[in-house]
Automatic annotation (TrEMBL):
Protein name: SpoIIE family protein phosphatase
PANTHER family, A to Z: STAGE II SPORULATION PROTEIN E (PTHR43156:SF2), STAGE II SPORULATION PROTEIN E-RELATED (PTHR43156)
Record carries keyword Hydrolase: yes
Alphabetized InterPro entries for the sequence: Bact_Sigma-Reg (IPR052016), GAF (IPR003018), GAF-like_dom_sf (IPR029016), HATPase_C_sf (IPR036890), HATPase_dom (IPR003594), PAS (IPR000014), PAS-like_dom_sf (IPR035965), PAS_fold_3 (IPR013655)
Record's compositionally biased regions (Polar residues): 17-28
Entry superkingdom: Bacteria
Protein source organism: Kitasatospora saccharophila
Alphabetically ordered keywords of this record: Hydrolase
């Protein structure tokens, strides 16, 4: 409620006689004080005690001037609380012919509830200060119409300086009220539109992909406009590609998708001129664009706004806003739509760049990672890759499954430092190199050492963590090597899961001369090895121990049997693990996941044959071979042969690789004959030099190999085999 400036009114003092006549009633301000102008059919105010500016009666021109301007007058006796007004004042208040008890409280009851307290305070202040006041207030006529009134009044004092009367004028301000209401509505609409632009800018800035931009645009509530149709299209090689629409039939949308944009179409004109085109009616459309009228007629709309999408000075598409009724948009509405078009253009350009980058990144990642995991008899595998929730969603995490000589399989999981295209490129080179080293048949420690040297030679200032595991498919033994990576997790046959400690070395590329140790552990049929990168078990709000505990709990959950579910249980387990790190914007690291289940041969028993190649002068491999043989004999049910077989096998293999310059092939087979088990061990090499049995002295440190074989084996021998020879022995259980 705006306060009127208080102009100096015709303030006059009440003559002493009049003041004396009024002071007997007391001060009505103690109960209710109200502004002047309000009395239903009130008598005209008396002019007594209101001297003119010169001390004479009111000038003759005052009444005609007030009548001509629709101004009424009032007189309020403050002590007696009697309020009177002339006929025009009553008319302004809508009180003609209505009874009015002429008290200030009755007058206040006529005012709008929001205005009455304001008027009361101003009048009370004027009475207390013997000053003047003015106010703007609303009143409701008997017929329910809302009107507005302005008044100005001045308080007059008696001979003793006490407030006695308030006199003043009132005039109708309803036209001003409507103007204010319209101004308030416009101000509110402008505020809504300003808020809409802010919210639209925020929503479009959060839109990541082109699909997101189209969804946000077609769901925008345009304040004060209420469009009946929205469409967003990009311009690609002279054709319109519809990205999203609302308010249109799907058949119509499909009809105009991927069609050439005719130069006579208003959208084409908007793109050429890089300025919005507004069409207010069907008649205007038909007159300005007759060749494009068929499209407009079929759409069923009556007015349109075509907003070009221009980003970095280049047109990229068009927004179409349409209405069912003919509509002439005003300047504010056109400005709103033009601003919206600019926001959509910038957001769409950013989203298209984002989509292009991520399409490139996804293609690069697909090339770097194996398309399919090779099938290896005796094992089942499952893999998952989840990109980080932010950035290019490409990085250095990778997995691989490598078929090895002898029917074995190698598992690789690794993570190159970084989450960019550079890291992905290094990962691709390292993956190929490591795969080549493994496929050549090198033992796990040698594979890891060569990969570390390869990465160091690249001189990229990057390092990589990696775990490489070679699985003997024949009997389920795993040889694992770890280079700064995570330990594998094993799900056992009883459903429990736990990490398996693996001897670790430095990450690849840190020290090219690093030597890695091998850790061996065994699997029973149906048991699963889980390899993953650190994005699965480590995050900003989760330490490594907590992550491993959560992973083990997930892996150990119940799974259906292979024959109990139409889907491979290993795939279900992979999905369950990956769901822990659902693709969200909060995840900061990539995740690679590799699972292998050793199925074993039919019947659940390990194959009763062990075959391994031993590299020339690779004495460390002999210890691994002894461990494999012990494991195999235990699984084959002949533990009583372990010690003898291990000793004799070690002698034959050592003899082959020390006295020849070629690799040796070790083979152990178990035969069942007449209820008895017979073990045959063969060592083949390509040397034509036959072994010679020697008789060493008591102090000799070698030369007793064949003596031990002859003494402990049931039978033994040496056989030629084209190129080279085969040494063998047999043991019976």
């Amino acid at each position: 409620m705006a306060t009127e400036p208080e102009a100096p009114g015709p303030a006059r003092r009440t003559p002493p006689a009049q003041a004396t006549r009024n002071e007997s009633t007391g001060n009505p301000l103690r109960t209710a004080v109200g502004p002047p102008a309000a009395g239903r059919t009130v008598p005209a105010p008396s002019g007594r005690g209101l001297p003119t500016r010169t001390g004479d009666s009111s000038p003759e021109w005052l009444e005609p001037a007030m009548a001509a301007n629709g101004i009424g007058s009032f007189d309020w006796d403050i002590r007696r609380d009697v309020l009177v007004g002339d006929q025009r004042a009553c008319t302004i208040l809508g009180l003609v012919g209505q009874p009015f008890d002429r008290t200030s409280a009755a007058f206040l009851s006529l005012l709008h509830p929001q205005d009455a307290p304001v008027v009361r305070r101003r009048v009370e202040r004027a009475v207390a200060e013997l000053g003047q006041c003015g106010a703007y207030y609303r009143t409701v006529f008997p017929n329910g119409e809302l009107h507005a009134v302005r008044f100005r009044g001045r308080v007059l004092a008696d001979a003793f300086g006490r407030p006695s009367r308030m006199v003043g004028f009132v005039w109708d301000a309803t036209v001003e009220l409507h103007k204010r209401e319209r101004a308030d509505e416009q101000a509110q609409l402008r505020e809504e539109r300003s808020r809409f632009i802010k919210e639209a800018a925020r929503a479009l800035s959060e839109a990541v992909t082109v699909r997101d931009v189209a969804r946000v645009f077609t769901e925008l509530p345009l304040p004060g406009l209420g469009p009946d149709g929205l469409a967003l299209a990009s311009l690609e090689a002279g054709r319109i590609a519809l990205l999203g629409s609302s308010g249109y039939r799907s058949r119509l949308s499909d009809q105009f998708d991927r069609i050439p944009l005719a130069p006579t179409h208003p959208a084409a004109e908007a793109i050429r001129q890089r300025a919005p085109i507004f069409v207010s009616s069907r008649e205007e459309y038909q007159e300005r664009y007759p060749e494009a009228w068929d499209w407009a007629e079929e759409s069923g709309r009556s007015s349109w706004a075509f907003l070009p999408l221009v980003a970095s000075g280049r047109p990229t598409g068009v927004c179409v806003v349409s209405f069912d009724d003919a509509r002439e948009l005003d300047a504010d509405e056109r400005t709103l739509l033009s601003t919206l078009g600019g926001l959509v253009a910038q957001s769409l350009a950013r989203a298209r760049l984002h989509d292009a980058e991520h399409e490139l990144a996804a293609g690069l990642q697909r090339v770097m990672l194996p398309r399919t995991v090779p099938a290896v008899p005796g094992v089942s595998t499952a893999v998952r890759y989840l990109a980080a929730g932010s950035g290019l969603q490409i990085g250095g995490d990778w997995y691989d499954v490598v078929p090895l000589p002898g029917g074995h399989v190698g598992l690789v999981i690794g993570d190159v430092q970084g989450h960019d295209v550079h890291a992905a490129g290094i990962m691709g080179q390292l993956r190929i190199a490591l795969r080549a080293y493994a496929a050549e048949g090198h033992p796990p420690a040698a594979v890891m050492a060569r990969a570390s040297r390869f990465l160091a030679d690249l001189d990229t200032d990057h390092f990589a963590t990696c775990t490489y595991a070679e699985v003997n498919v024949d009997y389920g033994v795993v040889y694992a090597v770890r280079a700064g990576h995570l330990d594998p997790v094993v799900r056992r046959a009883d459903g429990t899961a736990h990490p398996v400690p693996v001897s670790g070395g430095l990450p690849l590329g840190v020290d090219p001369d690093e030597e890695y140790r091998v850790t061996r552990f065994s699997l029973d049929p149906g048991e699963t090895v889980v390899l993953c990168t650190d994005g699965l078990v480590e995050a900003r709000d989760m330490d490594l121990d907590t992550g491993f505990a959560r992973l083990c709990a997930t892996v150990s959950g119940s799974l259906p049997g292979i024959d109990e579910s139409p889907r491979e249980p290993l795939e279900e387990l992979a999905d369950r693990i990956a769901s822990q790190a659902a693709d969200t914007s909060e995840r900061e690291d990539d995740i690679a996941l590799l699972l292998l289940r050793w199925d074993g041969p039919a019947g659940g028993r390990a194959a009763q044959q062990l075959r391994r190649r031993i590299g020339q002068a690779d004495l460390a491999r002999i210890a691994e071979l002894r461990g494999e043989l012990r494991d195999a004999l235990r699984r084959w049910g002949v533990p009583d042969l372990i010690d003898t077989a291990e000793l004799l096998s070690s002698e034959l293999v050592t003899n082959a690789i020390r006295h020849t310059d070629r690799d040796a092939m070790f083979t152990a087979r178990l035969y069942q004959e007449h209820g008895r088990a017979r073990l045959r061990v063969e060592v083949e090499d390509e040397s034509d030099l036959w072994p010679t049995r020697r008789t060493p002295g008591e102090q000799a440190s070698s030369g007793r190999g064949l003596m031990l074989v002859e003494a402990l084996a049931d039978t033994w021998g040496v056989e030629p085999r084209g190129t080279g020879k085969r040494m063998w022995f047999e043991l019976s259980s």
